[in-house]
Amino acid sequence: MTEEPIAATERSGADGTAEAAVSAVLSALADPTRRRILDALAARGRATATVLAGEMPVSRQAVVKHLAVLAAAGLVSGRREGRETLYTVLPAPLGVTARWMERVASDWDSRLAAVKRLAEAERERDSPAGAPGGRDDRG
Predict the structure, then answer these.
(1) What is the pTM of this model?
(2) 96: closest CA among 2, 7, 3, 1?
(3) Which pLDDT score, from 0 to 100, does residue 108 have?
(4) CA 20 to 30 Å from 92, out of 63, 77, 100, 139?
């Protein structure tokens, strides 16, 4: 895996690097309750912590703490409306993380293809002539 900088349009995070943004997103999404909250929020479009807590197996206070982690990772935004805060999903950090994961997957696909080629070349070299999968030099 290469640690190349990501395009300036994808830069975010406290230190201005995509790596920081990806780390924050992956850390925030490591918790299954936060994933459920993000899914519920995405399905609704926007919601309060009280509404989200009604769909979760945790208290409203716990939902508020989870929302703070999601907000710190740039995944949600809160806006005060009266006595409540309405939260919405911010998809940009997910896009940055998805593109990073695609690059990692592509790197691994290339590496695995190279290992496969080496293994097949070794098998071809070690196969007796005329054997299935081997060379037949008799023309």
Answers:
(1) 0.67
(2) 7
(3) 86
(4) 63
Amino acid symbol at 126: D
pLDDT digits (tens, 9 = 90+) for 11-27: 444 445 778 889 999 99
pLDDT for residue 79? 95
Q: Secondary structure of the chain in the HEC alphabet? A: CCCCCCCHHHCCCCCCCHHHHHHHHHHHHCCHHHHHHHHHHHHHCEEEHHHHHCCCCCCHHHHHHHHHHHHHCCCEEEEEECCEEEEEECCHHHHHHHHHHHHHHHHHHHHHHHHHHHHHHHHHHHCCCCCCCCCCCCC
